[in-house]
Amino acid sequence: MLQVKNISGGYQERKIIENLSFSVKKGEIFGILGPNGSGKTTLLKMISGILPVKSGTIELAGKPLSAYSPKKLAQNIASLPQIPTQMFDYTVWETVALGRYPFQTGFFKRLTGEDEQIIQKTMEQTNISHLKNKAINELSGGEKQRVFLAQALAQNPVLLLLDEPTNHLDISHQKIMLDQLKNWTQSNGLTVVSIFHDLNLASLYCDKLLLLKDGKAVAVDNPSVVMNEKTIEQVYGVSIVKQSHPELARPQMLLIPEQKQEETYKVTKRDIVQTKELIYLKAASPLKTLSSAIIGGGFGWHSTFVNRHVDKSYNCQDSRSEMADFLQKNGFDQHATVAMMTAACLEDGVVSELEAEGVSVVIVVTAGLSNAVDAANSIKRNGIASGTINTWILINGRLSDQAFIESVMTATEAKTKALADEKVLDPVSNTIATGTSTDSILVAATQKGIFHQHAGTITTLGRLVGRGVYESTIQAIQLNKKRRGRT
């Protein structure tokens, strides 16, 4: 649909765009990114034909822009610039109707019935029909943005050029507008080239991205390639972290604000409070967490950690809501808490602290074995009995996401080894148990101090986690056996 080949140009003798090439297929949304002054708006003006190229060519539908008459170009390309500060006092209807001007014929240039239908349809699609009789100067910035989008769409263009289309829009209308644009590209074959300042919105909605710096292409590719941490940091001069969107296969960039050097917070064994009803920790500052707990599962940041005792007869259809109510009644903020439960006696819980080579961890394990199960033979089970092994791994250090996951693997291997050495059996399969069917785990890190890329058993951190979980689980199992009168 659009071919940009080795173009250079700018204003008078000042070259803004230099030797730029890319292509956009029909039905794609193509995003242009770059810091202020990188040439984004200049490029858009060159594509629209407003600003001539000094060298190179721009082709639309296989024809150079120079081959189109001004009227034909206006029929094929619509532009939505940034909202002007001064504008005529037209009504919304009159403003949108200007989009049909390139199609009007005759001396008086009157709207046809077809024109009016198109105007009405685009106003409905952009949710501005209720504003049709209002003066454009009476509208908010977001409403004006939608009016000018409707004007551009009223042209029925094959190529739509947008300069920061979500500017002045709240988050709801940003989503509505971009969802509509995506739908139009897919259903009508509309091709969109748009400038974005919001990298994450561009990543979510664009099929391809162009990253500009000083008028030159740094990268032209799909979002997963262009949204590279090092590349974005070099172009924008900011610290960022790249993460995956939780629902879509699209990268998202998170800004890292400049922070003053804070005193390193260290979790110790003395911070753990252990009673008959609860084992809990209230940290001085939030820890980054990975957990399978009822409350606070997945990745997050939490400052309170709770392991709650429940009776063996506990049976609740909505344990999450029940746990949330329990936390609230007992003065815990559920949004800042990782919470799990067990029927095991919390007085038999084991708290240990290990340190080596400047790395320190605190391990907390509670063990109930009546629900012991061999994972390889769990298909033979029909129900869930009471009994849970809950494990906390509290790390004084900075962990990569990879290290969080490796910590879970290391801890699981250590727990399984402890069960084997203590000859804990699955009563159904009569084989060595690997855990219980309701085990929970928490890995929490202060994210201060030594950085750990890995936490496998070959690393210092992994060795501490493995030894700590193994020894604590052994001790917790032995205490549980003793309480149940077994050896």
UniProtKB/TrEMBL annotation:
Pfam families xref list: ABC_tran, CbiZ
A GO MF label: ATP hydrolysis activity
InterPro entries: AAA+_ATPase (IPR003593), ABC_transporter-like_ATP-bd (IPR003439), ABC_transporter-like_CS (IPR017871), AdoCbi_amidolase (IPR002808), P-loop_NTPase (IPR027417)
Keywords for the protein's UniProt record, in alphabetical order: ATP-binding, Nucleotide-binding, Translocase, Transport
UniProt keyword annotation of Nucleotide-binding present: yes
CDD domains: ABC_Iron-Siderophores_B12_Hemin
Coiled-coil stretches noted in the UniProt entry, renumbered to this chain: none
Start and end residues of each ABC transporter domain: 2-239
Full protein name: ABC transporter ATP-binding protein
Organism in which the protein naturally occurs: Aeribacillus pallidus
